[in-house]
Design brief:
By secondary structure, the chain is α+β, with helices and mostly antiparallel strands. Helix content is 39%, strand content 21%. α1 crosses α3. The termini are far apart.
Length: 284
């Protein structure tokens, strides 16, 4: 194995040395580097996984090609070679190594997921995001103001018009908790450059916790097929300095957008009320 591992390691090092920054990050979305406190961990796990799998693939392909050449039928040979029924070392190797790889990937994935899913005890900024067919509402909980979005419209080229794109403002460097709700069917909150998404389930509140670490505008979309205009359920996240964030909150308050958006227009209210009544009756 050492004669195989050394060339593989050398080849991998040479290959990675010649890669562009995009390739070294596993072709993840441009702009995701350092976007939040979680993106680098996700990137490291993604890239490391590909390197390990590439090494396994190179070894496997090399052994297949070597066996094909070394044990090919030579000119003048007839009949079948000696047939072997068992080879315990090889069979053990082919069993143990995949198990180790699977357990290793599982352990690192569980560790990273646990880190991402950990909620802040006292987040500095709390936003409630409500998905609805086919737009978004944003409740800025701490400031007690809201934004209500409409379905994105398109221009003659089919591109979304900026003035109809819902925009979620976040202050940079602040620990943030996003509470995810849906008003109708299952949606999924996905900020592409943040390398993480989470479903929005009717009758259930899900949470995302992160710290935006880079200012800029990031693209968001619904990642769960939710009906006819699912592809137009878009939004933007603008991460800005605290002063600009405060100015935006003041503009919402000046426009009369005080208070919080509720679920009064939720078409599932009757069904949920019925479920609650049935549940109550069963408990009694």
């Amino acid at each position: 194995m050492k004669w195989v591992a050394a060339p593989v390691a050398l080849s991998a090092a040479l290959l990675l040395a010649g890669c562009t920054p995009e390739q070294q990050r596993g072709f993840l979305p441009k702009g995701s580097e350092g976007a939040t406190n979680n993106t680098e961990g996700v990137t490291a796990m993604w890239v490391t996984s590909w390197i390990v799998l590439l090494a396994v693939g190179v070894i496997t392909w090399g052994l297949i090609i070597w066996a094909t050449i070394a044990y090919r039928r030579r000119k003048g040979q007839t009949g079948l070679p000696v047939q072997l029924r068992y080879n315990m070392p090889i069979e053990t190797f082919f069993t143990v190594v995949p198990v180790i790889l699977v357990l290793g990937f599982f352990a690192f994935t569980a560790q990273e997921q646990s880190k991402i899913e950990q909620r802040y005890e006292s987040p500095e900024n709390v936003v409630e995001v409500i998905g609805k067919r086919w737009a978004w509402d944003f409740n800025y909980v701490n400031e007690d103001v809201y934004f209500q979005g409409v379905q994105v419209q398109t221009d003659d080229k089919g591109e979304p018009t900026k003035d109809t794109l819902p925009v979620l403002y976040l202050p940079v460097g602040k620990t943030t908790e996003v509470r995810l709700e849906t008003r109708d069917v299952i949606h999924s909150f996905w900020v592409v450059e943040y390398l993480y998404k989470k479903d929005m389930i009717p009758g259930q509140t899900n949470y995302m916790s992160f710290t935006p670490e880079k200012t800029g505008t990031f693209m968001g979309k619904c990642a769960e097929l939710c009906g006819e205009y699912h592809s137009m359920m878009l939004f933007q996240v603008k991460v800005v300095e605290q002063q600009e964030y405060d100015a935006y909150i003041a503009s919402l308050r000046k426009s009369g957008n005080t208070g919080q958006v509720t679920n009064e227009f939720n078409p599932n209210q009757d069904r949920l009320a019925g479920d609650n009544e049935n549940s109550k009756a069963q408990n009694e």
